[in-house]
């Protein structure tokens, strides 16, 4: 397995790492520095507000890019992967809650313990939506394989008109891009690019241009006193954000190199997402760590630098915990896979 990781091209693996760091910084800025309160109209301006809007315009593309990666390389449904994924989520839900109880940072009760499994319904919003996409992937792959270029373009245009061009005004079908509709749309766009877009010249430059367009839309509406529209610009079904995800992907796709270290770290980054987005950890980072930094930092510049430093710490802690979790859970998974009825379920691909 190690030899395989070293030989595999690491460009997309590096992209996964970069995207996870972008997500962490995005969460610390929008929650800890309360930039997301633009959406409710309760945001209190800071000296660094303009820079925060600019920074978020570059960061917000991360989730769409993750979904694009899945569509470009196509999800290959495997029951073993699904079982492993569910065990991973269960571990972070239960264990992190119990750790907070042990540290005296949360009160224990059986109802709350049982509710830690609600990630299957809500919890990490990304998890149930991606699980739905994962389950639908075999049918999507088969259906898309039967379409020619013209048919794919027609499908993309129709889906775009139905939900995406109204991203500023309201939900409509796509639920601001946080629902399965937008994930399927990006998956289809990625399938088209895999088959008909071999290379994008100056992809990095086009990513910057798209991000600056998003910034112009966001800051322009903020400047004229429309903060709710500012926050709507960051909806995941904003067509410019989806286009930005395409260009960011091809920025790394155009690279070619190998690194066993990068490949190994990339295999740990989803655990980092589950770690820092677990409810207790998320609230502690927002209400304690970032809140403390806001009181001790002398100005917004040092505050933002400390946010980046905190993001590095969260990332390192996250991959470390995931490595430990794998050591604990992998033997359990291997044992489960030796059980006959589990083997039968695992073979249902």
Task: Describe the protein.
- The structure is a single chain.
- The chain is mainly α and 349 residues long.
- It is built from 17 helices and no strands.
- It starts with a helix and ends with a helix.
- Helix 2 packs antiparallel against helix 4 (62-73) and helix 2 crosses helix 16 (300-337).
- It has one domain (2-346).
- The longest helix has 38 residues, at 300-337.
- Helices cover 73% and strands 0% of the residues.
- Residues 11-317 form the Acyltransferase domain.
Précis, in short:
It contains 17 helices and no strands.
Primary descriptors:
acyltransferase activity, transferring groups other than amino-acyl groups; mainly alpha; 17 helices; transmembrane; 349 residues; Acyl_transf_3_dom
What coarse outline follows from CA principal-axis ratios? globular
Care to count the β-strands? 0
Radius of gyration equals 21 Å
For the termini, the CA-CA separation is 22 Å
Element order, helices and strands?
HHHHHHHHHHHHHHHHH
Question: Helix share of residues?
Answer: over 70%
Q: How many domains, in number, for the residues?
A: 1
Largest sheet: none
Strand residue content: under 5%
Topology, please?
Blueprint (H helix, E strand, L loop, with lengths): L1 H6 L3 H22 L16 H11 L2 H12 L5 H24 L7 H6 L10 H20 L3 H16 L15 H17 L6 H21 L3 H7 L5 H15 L6 H7 L2 H9 L1 H18 L3 H38 L2 H7 L3
Helix pairs in contact: 2-3, 2-4, 2-13, 2-14, 2-16, 3-10, 4-9, 4-12, 5-16, 7-9, 8-9, 10-11, 10-12, 14-16
């Amino acid at each position: 397995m190690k030899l395989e990781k070293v030989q595999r091209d690491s460009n997309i693996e590096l992209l996964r790492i970069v995207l996870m760091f972008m997500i962490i910084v995005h969460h610390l800025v929008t929650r800890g520095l309360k930039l997301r309160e633009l959406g409710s109209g309760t945001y209190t301006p800071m000296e660094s507000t303009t820079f925060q809007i600019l920074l978020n315009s570059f960061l917000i593309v991360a989730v769409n890019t993750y979904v694009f990666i899945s569509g470009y390389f196509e999800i290959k449904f495997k029951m073993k992967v699904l079982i492993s994924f569910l065990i991973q989520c269960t571990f972070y839900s239960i264990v992190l809650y119990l750790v907070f109880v042990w540290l005296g940072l949360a009160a224990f009760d059986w109802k709350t313990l049982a509710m830690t499994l609600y990630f299957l319904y809500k919890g990490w919003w990304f998890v149930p939506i991606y699980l739905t996409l994962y389950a639908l992937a075999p049918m999507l792959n088969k259906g898309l394989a039967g379409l020619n270029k013209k048919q794919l373009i027609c499908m993309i245009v129709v889906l775009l008109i139905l939900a995406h061009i109204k991203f500023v005004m309201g939900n409509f079908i796509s639920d601001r891009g946080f629902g399965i509709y937008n994930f399927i749309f990006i998956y289809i766009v990625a399938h088209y690019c895999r088959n008909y877009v071999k290379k994008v010249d100056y992809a990095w430059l086009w990513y910057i241009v798209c991000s600056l367009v998003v910034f112009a839309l966001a800051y322009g509406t903020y400047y004229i006193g429309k903060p709710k529209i500012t926050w709507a610009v960051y909806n995941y079904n904003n067509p410019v954000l989806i286009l930005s995800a395409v260009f960011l992907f091809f920025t790394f796709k155009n690279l070619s190199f190998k690194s066993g270290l990068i490949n190994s770290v990339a295999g740990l980054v989803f655990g980092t997402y589950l770690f820092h987005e677990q409810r207790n950890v998320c609230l502690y980072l927002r209400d304690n760590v970032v809140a403390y930094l806001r009181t001790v930092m002398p100005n917004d510049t040092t505050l933002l630098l400390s946010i980046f430093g905190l993001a590095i710490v969260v990332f390192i802690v996250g991959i470390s915990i995931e490595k430990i979790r794998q050591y604990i859970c992998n033997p359990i998974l291997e044992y489960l896979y030796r059980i006959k009825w589990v083997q039968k379920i695992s073979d249902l691909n």
